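Exam prep: given the inputs below (a chain plus S-adenosylmethionine), describe the expected output before reading on.
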Amino acid sequence: MKKEEIRKKVRESYSQIAQRNLSCCTSSPSCCGKGEAPKIILPSGYSESDLESVPEEAKLSLGCGNPIIFSSIRGGETVVDLGSGFGLDCLIASRKVGENGKVIGVDMTPEMINKARINATRAGYSNVEFRLGEIENLPIADNVADVVISNCVINLSPDKERVFQEAYRILKPGGRILVSDIVFQNEPPRRIRENLRAYVECIGGAILKEDYLSMIRKAGFQEVKVLDEKRMIDDSGVEEEYANEFEISLKDARKVAESLLSITVYGLKPYK
Ligand SMILES: C[S@@+](CC[C@H](N)C(=O)[O-])C[C@H]1O[C@@H](n2cnc3c(N)ncnc32)[C@H](O)[C@@H]1O
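Solution:
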């Protein structure tokens, strides 16, 4: 699949999701690009106190983890969220950085950016900004961020190495990256890799866990470690759905389901 074809399809899918205010929950196997029924969610790991300042209409997550709870965000810090979606993580981070801090959400889907801006404005958040752009070419200067977060987005990038290089570039020395994402324990069947729908649903573009961690290290990050890891799918009923949707055998579908992990990873940009 060509990179531009992937990007176009991903953007189209998230545009539709934004327009229909769709969401999903993190226990869903294919939460990212699917979400057939709109629902307000309280994704796992989000504390009630984090969510109490967030307007109801912004409590929509397409994430697969919770980078915020591991980020130890402090007052006055600058936080950048790669693939900010409806803006939930940005709004939570906004309260943590306070009036002397700043939060920047970046997303390539104009309809997502619009929704996130409306959510932030309605809630009166003045220290959050949403910028339209690709995470492979961040519209952000060098060495400005204290923290880069991302929740279930980098698997969707056809150029993941570049994303980690960009995250490294915009972080100040001593800054940290906290990403939640979907990875595989074992390589899935080729049909999954060739299926655009699987890609949009955050499965087809997910890479092996060890490759993911290597890419983060290769970008220059140190002290790279997995802070949280869980199986994406605990519902065996999904096998049949995968088998039909991705035209693979039930046995392969089972292997795919067992192999999908949600991880949250930390990395540090060292002082040189
Ligand atoms: C699965 S959703 C996650 C949204 C949000 N992080 C959350 O947890 O709810 C993926 C988001 O990333 C955006 N996205 C995907 N690929 C991107 C890219 N290459 N550059 C910028 N945004 C991207 C999509 O538009 C979508 O809003």
